[in-house]
């Protein structure tokens, strides 16, 4: 027996409860590409990640230092605001909690702005990022991310629509008050919850 999701039938054995409303399962070999602007070409010799703002200890990591941090694998589903989902991929990276332990957010810190190449930004509540499945992600299904999917680093926040898992991450700014990011300023809903379909304002 197959189950309908969107206009397609789910493969045998896929639990339809894993597909949020309004989503369609993409083909197993397909990870659609969506981003604004060109794909950056990183220079790992000069690349760094900066963690700053409302924290006790600001942090700067070069790429070697980042990859030397403790890592973990997370098996998770992803859901794009445009309506497709992928299920059960394996994501590899540094648990965000490793960064939180090192920088110690100030009590007033409530949000984190992800800063990416070409000025792209998106913000996420600190309570959402402080979760066991949130990663500074550099690997997917046993391989490094490809450049068009965010290499050398992307934020990974599987409980939100995928635009919150910002590609080409270069900084995390801890904030006392929220600021809207790139797509949120252009009509995307800041909550970005696939299960509540908070796609647009």
What does this structure look like?
The chain is mainly beta and 201 residues long. It is 9% helix and 32% strand. The protein contains three helices and 13 strands. The chain has helices at residues 63-68, 96-103, 126-129; strands spanning 4-5, 8-9, 24-25, 48-53, 59-62, 72-79, 84-95, 111-116, 121-125, 135-140, 143-144, 154-156, 169-175. The strands form three sheets. Strands 3, 6, 7, 10, 11 and 12 form a six-stranded mixed β-sheet that branches. A five-stranded mixed β-sheet has the order 5-4-13-8-9. A two-stranded antiparallel sheet has the order 1-2. The longest helix has 8 residues, at 96-103. The chain is globular, with a radius of gyration of 17 Å. Mean pLDDT is 93; it is low at 1-7.
Shape type: globular
Q: State the end-to-end distance.
A: 37 Å
> Which class do the helix and strand fractions yield?
mainly beta
Helical content, roughly?
A: under 10%
**Poorly predicted ranges (pLDDT <50, ≥5 residues)?**
1-7
> How would you characterize the largest beta sheet?
6 strands, mixed
E-strand count: 13
Q: Give Rg in angstroms.
A: 17 Å
Arithmetic mean pLDDT = 93
Strand content: 25-35%
Helix count, DSSP H or I runs of 4 or more residues = 3
List keywords for this structure.
201 residues; mainly beta; 5-stranded mixed beta sheet; 13 strands; 9% helix
């Amino acid at each position: 027996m197959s189950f309908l999701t969107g206009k397609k039938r789910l493969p045998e054995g896929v639990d339809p409860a894993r597909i949020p409303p309004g989503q369609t399962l993409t083909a197993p070999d397909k990870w659609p590409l969506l981003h604004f602007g060109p794909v950056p070409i990183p220079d790992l010799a000069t690349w760094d990640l900066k963690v700053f703002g409302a924290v006790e200890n600001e942090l700067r990591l070069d790429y070697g230092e980042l990859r030397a941090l403790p890592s973990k694998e997370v098996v998770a589903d992803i859901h794009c605001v445009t309506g497709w989902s992928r299920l059960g991929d394996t994501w590899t990276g540094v648990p965000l909690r490793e960064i939180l332990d090192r920088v110690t957010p100030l009590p007033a810190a409530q949000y984190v702005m992800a800063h990416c190449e070409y000025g792209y930004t998106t913000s996420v509540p600190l309570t959402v990022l402080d979760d066991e499945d949130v990663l500074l992600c550099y690997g997917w299904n046993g391989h490094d991310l490809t450049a068009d999917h965010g290499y050398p680093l992307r934020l990974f926040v599987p409980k939100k629509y995928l635009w919150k898992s910002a590609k080409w991450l270069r900084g995390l700014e801890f904030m006392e008050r929220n600021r809207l990011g790139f797509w949120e300023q252009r009509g995307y809903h800041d909550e970005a919850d696939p299960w509540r379909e908070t796609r647009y304002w």
